Amino acid sequence: MKPSHIIVCFFTVIILTSCLGNRYSNKLIQRGEENFSQGKYREAITNFNNALIWNRKDPRAYFWLGKIYEQQNRIDFAIINYEKAFELQPHDKETVLRLTTLLISQKKYNTSLEVLEKGAMFHPLDLDIGYLLSLALTYSGKAEEALLLIDKIPTSSNNTRLTYAKALASDTLGMSDYALIYYRRAIELDSLNPLPYFEIIKHLKRRGETDLVKPYIDAAIKYFYDPFFLEEKLYVLMSEYRWNEAITTATTLFNL
């Protein structure tokens, strides 16, 4: 057999093997997705890992493994797999959002910035990516850049999360009055978003405006029943010597 024929045969085998691998990988990923929808995470993990044996560069397998580990609160494993999925398909918006949400929750702000900036190249002025990018910028000490970014995004003034992000950036820069305006605006836009309540309560306490903080504490307890808000309620009641209400609130807090 001539050398040229050997080379042709060699590349033919590679192509056929690759096609076969992709075929088996697709089937295994489909099975894994079915397992996931049924809550059978162990079987899903097995199928996604087997899919990677056939095709190590299939971003879907890594993405779904990330979703499973995130669901199981195994954050480090989720991040590792989301990062691999992102390397293979940096244009995928859901991968960017899931990965950077976890990175920010783990205070890995610089890493989240790198991912979000790449994601923003594929999805310029996207509301979801813009929101996370503005948070990452603020937490990384670049609050001014966060404000400039938010102002460039269309309809940002009517988006509760971007308004909240603007309040946070303003607060970080010491722009107290502006921060208060934006926190209030974020709550007006969506009264069921807990984040502005957390921050406006802390903000008003720093300003010493106890009377203004009370309605936000009461509303937050009504909507969310989070220990943080009950603790703030207890603090107010004790400062006003309302002992019976304080005891009731303390009992509720203890039983949570």
Give an overview of the whole structure.
This protein is 81% helix and 0% strand. It has 256 residues and is mostly helical. Helix 2 (41-54) runs antiparallel to helix 3.
Produce the secondary structure layout.
Blueprint: H1 3-37, H2 41-54, H3 59-71, H4 75-88, H5 93-105, H6 109-122, H7 127-139, H8 143-152, H9 160-172, H10 176-189, H11 194-207, H12 210-223, H13 227-239, H14 243-255
Helix pairs in contact: 1-2, 1-3, 2-3, 3-4, 4-5, 5-6, 5-7, 6-7, 7-8, 7-9, 8-9, 9-10, 10-11, 11-12, 12-13, 13-14
CA radius of gyration is 25 Å
Q: Could you list the spans in which at least 5 consecutive residues all have pLDDT below 50?
A: 5-19
SSE string: HHHHHHHHHHHHHH
Structural class: mainly alpha
Could you estimate the helical fraction of the residues in percent? Answer: over 70%
Largest sheet: none
The total of helices stands at 14
Distance linking N and C termini: 79 Å
Record field, number of beta strands = 0
